[in-house]
UniProtKB/TrEMBL annotation:
Protein name: Tetratricopeptide repeat protein
Taxonomy, superkingdom: Bacteria
Organism per entry: Frigoriglobus tundricola
Amino acid sequence: MSYRAAAARLKTGDTAGYARICERAEAAVLKDVPVEQLNDAAWQLSLAPGGARAPDRLAERFAAAFKAAKGPMEKHMYANTLGAVLIRAGRYAEGVQWLERGVAADGDKRLPEDAAFLAIAHRRLGDGAGADVQLAKARKAFGLLSEQPEKWADCVVLELLIAEAAPEQVPYPRLKSPVPPAGE
């Protein structure tokens, strides 16, 4: 199963389907798979709270991947995944550090998911102002992404993360187009 399938399951409220995807993804993580496959599996596990049952194992694998990464974009990719995994494990301060480290490694290029996960972490740490700054960045990115139909899965994930980071601030711009079938 893919990131797109996981996003579709979450968007349609199919938590049982998302749980099945997470079971398969976590099984892959516990094997010695290439880091690219590990990254894909970890993102599937990080899309919603409770996706990973062994987040500490994921964190160990990504710390090693970050050290072995060859370029700034690769370092950013592994650091932001590690940050998301740590946030899902309830290790918010460490998650913030890794997300910021990834952004810094890539010339301060912030991905929309970076901002959304930072907003979640700051909110959980009691830093409402920090969360609001990151939410503004995530919402701006959502607006830009929602104009690109091929980015529907990214929009769905960003929409869910924004809602998680600021449930008291909903409504916010929602994805206009329907989610393609889960098999896509």
